[in-house]
Amino acid sequence: MFFYISFISNIMQKYYTSDNFSSINSSFLNGDAVRVSFFIRNSELIMAEECYFYLMASMRKMRMHIPLSYTLEFFQELLQKEAINKGVSNGIINLLVYRNLEENLPLPKRSVSFYFDITEIDDILNIREGYSLDIIREIFINSSLLSNIRVHCPENIYAEIYAKENDLDEVILLNANRRIARSISGNLLFLENGKIKVPKQTEGALISPLMENFVTFLHRQNIAEVEQVEMVAFESQKAQEILLISDEKGLFSVTKIRNKTFETTQFTNWVEQWRNHYNNNKHKEI
Question: Which end of the chain is more exposed for a tag (fewer CB within 10 A), N or C?
Fold first, then answer.
């Protein structure tokens, strides 16, 4: 296991690779990889089972060979040893699994390797600074079998450059039907008249263990009604509040889209209740 440490915008990041890492690999050459996130909170892995099953589902969708060693316990022990035991108490682990270059074997039978980086943050269950968004209409994303998992997506790269050039934190991506799919890094939850609206996965939204855990909490505690919907672009302006949930980066209040500003009170309150539930039920599922 190899590891490296760097600093980006004063945020410490640690990088790890499996022992058979090669810089010339299928992810580098072809974008042949899947990515999922794991979460560390108060020196414990949380939602590990949900994140693991999302990894397995993603690998199956990409027709990757899944080693027998890739068990839940393997990843729990790996992340405990390489992250928590080395001093990471709160952070996001972004894990990339990719196919190796073994040209003598057919693609589905090629072995896989992994790489992961760790970004230390205060608390994955805290809403971070407000985001300014806009809708990008120059490109559209697919709403197909692979659109729900985190795989190579050139639209994300284009959209991130567009956001930087226009002094935005993120953008809202539309699908080919010009309906809201997701943001660059995650999903959007729209609070409108007491009801939370979330774009359907068939619209291009990402599968997100973090969002699903939050939504499940709201449902089981009878806190709010959540509806999966199809939303045309202008409907974003009808919301009273918008929350961006990104497995890759965390939770963010959306405070502005173009000239409209949004409140943050209700989602902030609900996330606080979610966090308190975790604090009071450390070893219980949501």
Answer: N
How distant is the alpha carbon of residue 279 from its chain centre? Answer: 22
The phi, psi pair for 134, rounded to 5°, reads -150, 170
Q: What is the mean pLDDT of each run of 10 residues along the chain (286 residues)?
A: 44 68 79 96 97 98 96 97 94 95 89 93 92 96 94 96 97 97 98 96 97 96 96 95 98 95 97 94 62
Do residues 257 and 168 lie in contact, with contact meaning Cβ atoms separated by under 8 Å? no
Counting every residue, how long is the chain?
A: 286
pLDDT at 74: 97
**How many whole angstroms separate alpha carbon 83 and alpha carbon 88?**
5
Cβ-contact 45, 84 below 8 angstroms: yes
**Tokens at 285, concatenated:** 């599922």
**Residue 2's pLDDT is what?**
46
Residues 204-239, buried b or exposed e (16+ Cβ, 10 A)? bbbbbbbbbbbbebbeeeeebebeebebeeeebeeb
Q: Residue written as tokens 């690779």?
A: 17
User: Is residue 97 within 8 Å of 222, Cβ to Cβ?
Assistant: no
**Contact call for residues 197 and 189 (beta carbons, < 8 A):** yes
Helices (H), 233-264: none
- The per-residue pLDDT for 59 is 98
Q: Which two tokens stand for residue 218?
A: 């709201």
Task: Tell me if 218 sits within 8 A of 238, measured CB to CB.
Answer: no
- Name every residue whose Cβ is closer than 8 Å to that of residue 262 and which is 6 or more positions away in sequence: 239, 240, 241, 242, 253, 254, 255, 256
Residue among 213, 187, 185 nearest 47 (CA): 213
This prediction's pTM: 0.92
